[in-house]
TrEMBL record:
<dbReference type="InterPro" id="IPR001791">
    <property type="entry name" value="Laminin_G"/>
</dbReference>
<dbReference type="Pfam" id="PF02210">
    <property type="entry name" value="Laminin_G_2"/>
</dbReference>
<dbReference type="GO" id="GO:0016020">
    <property type="term" value="C:membrane"/>
</dbReference>
<feature type="domain" description="Laminin G">
    <location>
        <begin position="15"/>
        <end position="202"/>
    </location>
</feature>
<keyword id="KW-0732">Signal</keyword>
<dbReference type="InterPro" id="IPR013320">
    <property type="entry name" value="ConA-like_dom_sf"/>
</dbReference>
<dbReference type="InterPro" id="IPR050372">
    <property type="entry name" value="Neurexin-related_CASP"/>
</dbReference>
<feature type="signal peptide">
    <location>
        <begin position="1"/>
        <end position="15"/>
    </location>
</feature>
<protein>
    <recommendedName>
        <fullName>Laminin G domain-containing protein</fullName>
    </recommendedName>
</protein>
Amino acid sequence: MSPLLFLAALPLASAFLLEGSSTSYAQFRKWNPGLNGSLELEFKTEQPNGLLLYTDDGGTYDFFEVKLVEGALRLRYNLGGGAQILTVGRDLADGHWHKVQVKRDGEKTSLTVDGETQIKSSRGKEFFFGRLSSNSDVYVGGMPSWYNTKLTLLALPSVIFEPRFGGAVRNLVYSDDESPLPRRQEIRMKDHKVNFQKIEIA
């Protein structure tokens, strides 16, 4: 059975593990948040720092970077009017599951962790995130090494130097601007390094 079929056959409570090494990451299809898309996932780790998720518009200026910083979750993003930062939670590297949601609502963007929400409004007049045709894939846990020689394809080149996330991730779900029904995402089997295992729901 291929790895992709194996993943699809696992129950919803399953998770994938990222070892946090220099080659560890998982790759998912493009997300088109537009003006009203949303994205959510659950993670569990004991490491207080690490890149949890990144996607951008293909290297122009729009990006979403979600990372753990000293046990807090930080969303750094740009919709063209300058970078904004939202920080929610603390002591999240406690080995327990935590639920994260990033939501767009026009000029407003929110970050929610375990029910606690921070919201910011973007500056400027145009708040649309990229275009589906040129947006990057969604990367979880780290970035592919080939970006090291193609930094111009990144709207936030410094993301390549972020420490990688080591821990478990499950239930990555996102809705697109043109298709607001949330859909569970499956890993694209490329040059990633993850392990699959069944994780207890608790």
